[in-house]
Every structure is written in C-alpha cells, then in structure tokens.
Amino acid sequence: MKKVSLLAVFTFLAINVFAQSEGDAIIGIWMNDEGTARVQIYKTKEGKYNGRIVWLKEPNDPETGQPKLDKKNPNEAMRNKPVKGLVNLINLEYKGSKKWGGDDARIYDPKSGNTYTCDATMTNESTLELKGKIPGTGIGRTATWTKQVKK
Fold this sequence. Notes:
By secondary structure, this protein is mainly beta. The chain contains one helix and nine strands, in the order αβββββββββ. It has one helix spanning 2-23, and strands at residues 28-31, 37-43, 49-56, 87-96, 99-101, 106-109, 114-124, 127-133, 140-150. Strand 8 and strand 9 (140-150) form a beta hairpin.
C-alpha cells in the first residue's frame, strides 16, 4: 500500500512541477505591439504573474523633459508616479495549454488610464497575444507582444 501511495505522490509532484515550469514560459521581457514599451513579466510569491514597465521608447515628457507620469490614472494619488516602473499587468494565473488569465487578471493602459480584464496566450516561444476587454462586456482588442529576453 505504501508503494502505491509513494508512486501517487511522486506522480502528483512531477505533474505539478511540469505545470509550473510550463506556466513560467511567460516570464521575461516583452515588447508591446507598438514598439513603445517593454514589460517585464515575473512570478509573484502568490504564484501569479505580473508585469512591470521597464523601458519606454520616449521615457520623458516632451513638454517638461521630466520622466513621463501616470497622468491619466483614475486614482489622483497615482498621477505623480512615473510610468516607467509601473505594474500594469496584474494577477495572471496559468490555466494550462499556454494560456493565462483569471477572474482578477487585469491590464492597465497608462495612455488612457483604463484598466481591462485580461487573458494571454503564447502562440510560440516569442509571441504573446494579450486580449484586453472592458470589464463585463467582452468588448476589447488583442495586442501581440514579442519576447525580448527570456527569464
């Protein structure tokens, strides 16, 4: 009986490790489809995936020469925060089959100040399709990001 139990435990652990490593394929630095920003996707201690803006093609405000700020954020307290360093991809969970999403998965667009629900699919090792939708509507668009740097 113990042999069967140990085999079941090892099988479960092996499947779990494989699923984690497959889910981690999203980790890395991704260029947005406009070529204006790079987002570093990382795994949180809770096991979800977030993304932080780590590079901007135009990092400074053309009027002030200072770093671009999150001026359109609906939270007034956040409007004086730099866009570079901003966490704009939040709470993606690995769903299997190279797909991420979840009830709390969101993507924030600092250009508009809007937050959208988000699902992501890796179509190959270097291509990530992000579907942002207006919450509760299903209306949205798909952006294709390109991997720049692995893990």
